[in-house]
Amino acid sequence: MNKLSVKGLKWLKGFHLIAVACWVGGAVSLLSLYFLKDSVSDGNVLYGMNQSIHHVDMSIVVVPGAIGSLLTGLVYSLFSNWGFFRHNWLTFKWIVTSIAIVFGTFFLGPWETAMMDISGKIGLASLQNP
Q1: Structural domain for 91, as ranges
Q2: Which of 53, 93, 114, 116 is paired with 33 by a 20 to 30 Å CA distance?
């Protein structure tokens, strides 16, 4: 299989780092928004925060960053000398990335969407309702 040139690898590394920064930075920003919910005293503000969290996660930063990280990592493994399993840390990275994407897709995403819908319907009561 053809390998990328040095210039191509540098471009790929740049795109990969941007995608990872979006993914991790978006996750950190989501955590900060979660902690701001403690001081909310209006149901509409809570719903607005949950909408913001949902949009940052699903459409703007986190999901595109995760997909970009996965795809650029795949291209890196296929078209460079790194491969998929050449080093233990690379194998670990593939496992962690796959688990994080699957967990986010099947658990965190639906929970977050439900959280937004519930806070839109019952407002602040969603913080006390089991």
Answers
A1: 42-130
A2: 93
